[in-house]
Amino acid sequence: MSRNMRIAVLAGAATVLVIGFVVAGKGSSVKATHTSGHAYIYVVGGKPKGGVQTIVYNQGEQVTFTVVSDVAEEIHVHGFNLKKDVPKTGSVTFSFPATDVGDHVVELEGRGEQIANLEVR
To answer: Which of 43, 56, 77, 105 is deepest in the core (most CB within 10 A)?
Structure first.
């Protein structure tokens, strides 16, 4: 293999590595995963502390999670169309059966900020 061919192969490999790191980094907004039981989601400055977490329940289980927030906002669980207000420096708890299989966004409705992903399997 010629010198120029080796340089081209190394440059191509470096490009693939850089693209891989960039693509992998795009999923970094999803952080912790909580499975079943009671989950806690903390909101600081209008954003989910530690990033968007995924909470996982099996169909038929009781979904239970509490949002603790330093901002007043309406919390909306998409797919189940549940909404509750959380007061500034307060908390609100949701509890309902996991009936709809799939991924459901939990967000600060007024801000359009996703704070969790509810996955029902």
So the answer is: 43
pLDDT > 70: percent of the chain: 72
CB 50 within 8 A of CB 114: no
Contact by Cβ (8 Å): 55, 121: no
**C-alpha angle with apex 49: 103 to 53, nearest 5 degrees?**
20
Give the CATH superfamily of 30-120: Cupredoxins -  blue copper proteins (2.60.40.420)
Q: What angle do CA 75, 77, 83 make, to 5 degrees?
A: 50
Q: Residue 22: what pLDDT? A: 35
Mean pLDDT of all residues in the chain? Answer: 82
